[in-house]
Amino acid sequence: MSLQDALSAFESHLKNIQKYLFRDEESKDTLSNIKDIFMETLKSHQVLKKEFSQIEKSEKEMETLVEIGKVINSVLDMDQLLNLIMDMVIKVVNAERGFLMLKDKETGELTFKVARNMDQELKDKALFTISSGIVSKVCVEGKSILSTDAKSDERFFAQASVMDYNLRSVMCVPLKIKDDIIGAIYVDNRMVAGAFTQDTIELLSSFANQAAISIENARLYENVAHETKIRTNLQRYLSPNIVNDIIAKKEKLVLGGERVECSILFADICGFTSMAEKLPPENIVYMLNEYFSAMTKIIFENEGTLDKFVGDAIMAVFGSPVFSPHSALNAVKTGLDMLMKLEELQKKWESEGNPSFKIRVGINTGEVVAGNIGSPDCMDYTVIGDNVNIASRIESNAKPMTALISDSTYIKIKDIVVAKEMEPISVKGKSNPIKTYEIDSIQIFKDEKVKSNKRRFVRKNVSIFATFKVLPSSKVNQCIIQNISTGGLLVSSRVEVSVREKVLLDFTLPDKSALSGIEGKIVQSQPFYDKNSYTYFKMGIEFISLNNINLEKISNFIA
After folding, report:
1. Contact, 394 vs 415, CB < 8 A?
2. Among candidates 426, 480, 402, which has minimal Cα distance to 181?
3. For position 82, which CATH number holds?
4. Quick one: 78 and 66 in the same domain?
């Protein structure tokens, strides 16, 4: 017999007892004790029935969540997943409207990903301010918000959207992965007060926890696919260490053509054609493969980019796509290392009975246009421009087994190299000859110490979602705090704020300490680019005033 059947039978017996006890009014006195027992039993029945109803409801909700979990956990396409989640949210909590926002991990920007029944507001971005303050508050504090009558809720008096759109019932829950908030789900009802209850928001919170895991899984899947594609492309011309560094730091590569300064190296075999005519093809292939493998390894060891093989020549780039302040030095060191390695190979080949060959190296430094050129499915990274042609021209004027560099390269490394000035060379399209220098060696002074200024404040690296207002505006913006000290913050945001502008920040430290209305001043601002080439800004903020309570909160956290 089920619990429901047992309750029904118990209820039937109680009714029969009740009829028997109260059929005769005169029996009330003699049966008073029995009646008292009956009434207590009846109360127990009512409590049991209520508890059973709650258990039954919880079981149904659990079954619903299990079914939802099976569905959404099987979807890895992000757009499909978000739409599925939003449809289920509307259905499960019986909401009129709703939307889902995700947080940009680099900037903290809350972005609308999917919405339901908000067509008019979506058409007019000025009108679509629906509860942005509520969502920001939920993402800062990590706590759900429920209002059974938002119109009269004093928490929302400052929210123009609540008043303008006559919102009644409102719920907003964070999407959490452990303590990391990745976004929020918002639903409302414009007409009915009390449409949502405490049970409803608990159900939505449980749903949001499952949804957050599914979203993170889909995001990880996308990242792995994206990273695999990037790694496959980059490993063709960059060293594994640089590839790993680019992916780990999520650096933006120079795509689509951008002007950069770098150093270009050409290395060409002298008299290769005549030598190839005297050797069997298999010998030539063997020697070239051994030579190219050794030279490529040297390029990678010196943080260079293998641009291409042009017949028997090698073209390498230093300082792009990953910037390095030592690109000229790295290029020159590569040239000298190539000459030394070739001397080893010459001895090896001669011992094997094969003829050897010599190479020339030419290097130039200057501005070029760099980027991936080709089709979306087949791209090659390269640099083009006048300075590339100059590097090639310098190489053709170098003596065998020497490295010849331009004046623009020499200027950057003149204090640490031993070099001899050579005759200037004429280059097509240039009115004046170009100065060149033949490099003998690099002098590294190991006892030279580099002094660095110590920070005034101890900083702690973090990743904290925060909101801020640029005074005197009341508009709420989002950002990510990247490091924090008792003196200020480093944040990243899609919103550009000019140096010397004042801001008010709200955020919660990982130890749950909440700080609000923190006044700061922008002291530096620099643009960066994400993987989609969209601009965001890293800004240094100096605290203008920090009371003792907030100072203690930050001090305790970074200690």
Report:
1. no
2. 480
3. 3.30.450.40
4. no
Q: Which element (helix H / strand E) includes 404?
A: strand 403-406
CA–CA separation, 4 and 357 (whole Å): 94
- Strand arrangement of the beta sheet that strand 169-177 belongs to: 110-116, 97-103, 180-189, 169-177, 145-147
Domain count, the chain: 4
* Pair 300, 422 in one domain: yes
Task: Please say which residue of 16, 48, 70 terminates a domain.
Answer: 70
Backbone angles phi, psi at 117, to 5 degrees: 60, 35
Is residue 543 domain-resident?
A: yes
And the tokens for 158?
């400052």
- 253-294 pLDDT, tens digit each: 544 567 888 999 999 999 877 777 777 888 888 888 999 999
Position 74 pLDDT exceeds 70: yes
- CA–CA gap between residue 196 and residue 66 (Å, rounded): 22
How far apart, in whole angstroms, are the C-alpha atoms of residue 224 and residue 229? 9
pLDDT at 454: 41
Does residue 130 carry a pLDDT above 60?
Answer: no
Give Cα separations from 3 to 9, 48, 258, 408 (angstroms). Answer: 10, 11, 73, 89
Is residue 137 located within the same domain as residue 273? no
Asked if the structure places residue 391 within a domain, the reply is yes
For residue 474, the model assigns a pLDDT of 85
> What confidence tens digit (pLDDT) does each residue in 362-412 have?
999 999 888 766 655 555 678 888 999 999 999 999 999 999 999 999 999
> Phi/psi at 478 (nearest 5 deg)?
-110, 155
Instruction: Tell me the residue range of the domain where 471 lies.
Output: 460-558
Q: Do 187 and 261 fall into the same domain?
A: no
Whether the full predicted model's pTM is greater than 0.70, yes or no, is: no
For residues 135 and 265, state if they share a domain: no
